[in-house]
Each structure stands twice: as C-alpha cells, then as structure tokens.
Design brief:
The chain is α/β, with parallel strands linked by helices. Helix content is 26%, strand content 21%. It is built from 13 helices and 18 strands.
Length: 478
C-alpha cells in the first residue's frame, strides 16, 4: 500500500474513525494479553457530542469587557496572566486564585499597575466559579488538577484556557471534551504553537507533497541536567497552604515540601518530563503540521533513572516509539544533556533560526524527497535536500500573545479555538500511553485508536483508571 503523504481528519472524527455506534469485545488472559472475546470496548461516547460551532446567541460584543481569573499563580501562571493583561484587549483580571498564600503576590502587584485595579486573592477556585461576572479562567495548576478544574469551570459557565498536558489520564481528556460540548464552553489548550503562522505554512508545505511520503518523525525535549533530588521528610502543612485543596483529586498524602514544590517528580501529580518538561508542545505541533493523523496503533517506551537513582517516580530519560502503521514517530525526553539548549529570545522573538544540531526541542520530519527541521515557540522551519542544501524556510515569533488573543476572541465570538480540547486530548493520549508503557516495564502496548483502549495489558489499563478522593470525584457524567 502506498504510504500516505499527509494526514487529515475532521473535527468530528477526532481519532480518525467513524462515529457510528459500534462496539467490540476483547478477552485478556492472566497476563493481560488479548485472547478473544470478553472485555467490552465501545467507541468513546464523547465523540458523538463534538460540535464544530457553539450557539451564536451567546456572543459577547467587543465593547463589553471580558472578565478573567487566574487559577494557579506559580511562575508560569504569573507570566501568562501578565501577558494577557498586556495584550491590549478590553479585559480585566478580577481574581488571582492559589491554595498557597505565598504565591500570587507578584501577579497581583503587577496587575494592579497594569489595570489600575487590584485583583481579589482567593484560595478556593469555586469562589471564582460562583462569580457570574467572570467570563473565563486560566488554569495553571499542577497537572492532576487540570481536568476537574476545567470541568467545574465549564459547569459554572466559564470559558477555559488550560495548560498542557491538559489531562492526567485518557478518561479525563474524554470527560473534558464532553463538558466543553455539553455546556458549550470554549476550552483553549495551552499549546501555543497552534497559533503560530509558521506552523500553518509548514503544514501547507507538507501537504503539497514537496517532502514526499512521510517516513518518520522525531520529537525531542532534552533538558539541561542532570539535577540531583533529595526527598524531604513529611511534616505538618504550613498555615499558608490549604493542603487538602492542593491534593484535590489526588490520593491522600501527608504534607511534604518535596511533593509541594517538586510535584513534577511524582506520578500522582504529573506525567513526568514528557508533560511538565514541555515535550507535548513539540509533539502537538508535529501532529498539527502533519494534518492531525489520529492516534497510534502501538506504543513502546524505554527509559529509567540513569543519572541519579533516587526516590523520584519519574525517569530522567525516556525514548518512545509510536507506530501509525505506515510511518513512525519517536519522542525523546529527559534531563541528562547539559549541552542541549532551548531556543533563546534571539530566536523566539527574532529572525534567526535555531542551531539545529544541539537544539533541545527540535522536530525532524523525514520524507522520501527532503527533510524538515521544525522549531517550537518561534523557531520556524527549514527544509533541506542532499548536501545540506537549504530548499525553503519560514520563520515566526513566540506565539503566546497570539494564542491568548485567540482565546479572548473565541470568548467573544464562540468560535472554536486554535488549541481545541479535542486535539489537546488527542496529543495528551500519546503522552499517557508513553508513560503507561514505561510504568508497565517498558512494554509495547497495543492500542485501538477506534475505542481508545489498551488491548494487551490490563495493568496499563488499570494504571490509567485513576481513583479520586471524596469531594473531588471525576465521573463519566459531567
């Protein structure tokens, strides 16, 4: 069969399959291997809820001020909300919410200077959601809170900007889509490269066939390191934090400053370096320029703690292979490479291209005719032929402001955003499968894109089936 040059699906066919009612059964033996019929699998019910547009009657006139709030005031949340406040649109930041009183001070002080109004500091996001004046929220919490915070926001009639990785499991992403569609709420995923003009031109170039048939795609996120880690002893939670609310849907655990400050090292709160490190930015952009190719049919991830054999849950290096049938994508992540560098401001906001050889976040797209280097966050793209001959290129700038403005515009117009929750979920599924493969002993997982089901390993499926604490449940009924 001739290899496809470009991959394109509609919004309604989010995983590249028919939405017709269908089900299939699988039988797994004691080792979790598919043997026949027994375990029932069905096409996920969220797919039939997907809407290309929302009700036009809910549009907000440009003359009306958009009222926003920040949920999670860490360093990135602070940078994001200040970028929004400086965007020059008719908006106001009314709340800065964080369960930790020691965070949010800078955001509040800077916002007061920008807008002449001091945002209200609150601990509990539900107080923000109860305010009918609030139009939208920026959710910048640890990852284990993303899904529930977004679903609560949708239920309260708020539009949502939710940071990557948008969910903590495959099921959570499915429920986020259902909530967005049921309550007709905008959900913009924090995958800013989807608002980059050069990502669109890269997609058009690949679609033209100039690269030839796509053979393989290589995505990387290789951070500075290695970084030592010493887990602290459990202690009483300080009065400055609502630890119960910080844990939220995660398992009960005593306060520990390492969990609080270094949550990215624990599976309970994070997907490890493949999520908090930022590799999903590159993976998502690769999927975009390839025309949204759907989900893989198998995933294999190998890795480990190679630099420091300490108490961190997450590995310091992973290599994942995604098999799409007629092409392959790899994802390489870790923090063992101090000689690798991300793009600096001279690249992100300037006219120069990354130094590709030691660029820590590049994407290589290999075709049967030519190859493309693709850079995130303003890195642009360049196409090469034999003997390093530069064929064509396109540059851009860091698209964060454009992504925020797209979110604000969608709050007003009710159009679907550039970083829709549907594609945010599809990209997140890749991340979850990579970690599940690693956590089940570097096992190749066979996956059904149609049913979004792991076919050959019940342990991996159980790991993805998270449980939630009382009061923070997330069910299939949103």
């Amino acid at each position: 069969m001739k290899r496809r040059k470009f991959f394109q699906i509609s919004a309604a066919g989010a995983a590249g399959v028919s939405l017709a009612a269908s089900c299939k059964s699988f039988n797994r033996d004691k080792d979790g291997i598919n043997q026949g019929e027994s375990v029932k699998s069905e096409i996920p019910d969220y797919r039939k809820t997907i809407k290309p547009t929302f009700s036009a009657g809910k549009e907000k006139p440009a003359s009306d001020k958009v009222i926003l709030a920040l949920i999670g005031a860490g360093s990135w949340g602070t940078n994001l909300i200040l970028e929004a406040a400086n965007a020059g649109e008719n908006m106001m930041i009314k709340y800065v919410c964080d369960v930790d009183d020691e965070r949010g001070g800078r955001a509040i002080a800077e916002l007061e200077k920008i807008q002449g109004f001091k945002p209200i500091a609150v601990r509990d996001m539900r107080k923000v959601y109860d305010d009918k004046e609030v139009d939208g929220v920026f959710i910048e919490t640890p990852e284990h809170w993303h899904a529930l915070a977004a679903i609560w926001a949708c239920q309260a009639g708020k539009d949502v900007y939710v940071e990557k990785t948008v969910s903590h499991s495959i099921f959570e992403g499915q429920q986020m889509i259902k909530a967005a569609m049921k309550y007709e709420r905008i959900v913009q995923c924090g995958m800013q490269n989807r608002s980059a003009d050069y990502a669109i031109t890269a997609r058009d170039y690949i679609k033209s066939g100039e690269l030839g048939d796509i053979v393989s795609v290589h995505v990387r996120e290789l951070l500075d390191g290695p970084v030592p880690f010493n887990e602290k002893e459990n202690s009483n939670a300080p009065d400055t934090i609502d630890w119960d609310m910080w844990l939220g849907p995660a398992p009960e655990a005593p306060y520990n400053v390492s969990r609080h400050k270094s949550w990215g090292y624990y599976w309970d709160y994070s997907g490890g370096y493949v999520t908090s490190g930022g590799s999903i930015h590159q993976l998502d952009m690769a999927r975009m320029v390839l025309g949204f190719p759907g989900l893989p049919k198998s995933v294999y991830c190998s890795g480990g703690r190679y630099s420091f054999n300490d108490k961190r849950d997450v590995p310091d290096y992973q290599m994942t292979t995604f098999d799409f049938g007629d092409w392959v994508m790899t994802l390489e992540t870790g923090e063992c490479t101090p000689y690798m560098q991300k793009e600096g401001l001279d690249v992100r906001m300037g006219k120069i291209y990354p130094k590709w050889m030691q660029n820590s976040t590049r994407v290589d797209i290999l075709g049967t005719k030519k190859m493309m280097y693709l850079g995130r966050m303003g890195g642009g793209w360049q196409v090469f032929d034999k003997d390093e001959k530069l064929v064509t290129q396109d540059k851009g700038i860091f698209p964060l402001k454009a992504h925020i403005l797209n979110y604000i515009d969608c709050i007003r117009t009710r159009k679907q955003p550039n970083g829709s929750i549907v594609e945010g979920h599809n990209s997140s599924v890749h991340i979850h499968l990579a970690n599940l493969s690693y956590r089940t002993g570097n096992k190749q997982l066979l996956f059904s894109p149609e049913y979004e089901t792991i076919l050959n390993d019940s342990k991996a499926a159980d790991l993805d089936n998270l449980t939630y604490r009382q009061g923070f449940e997330l069910s299939g009924d949103v």
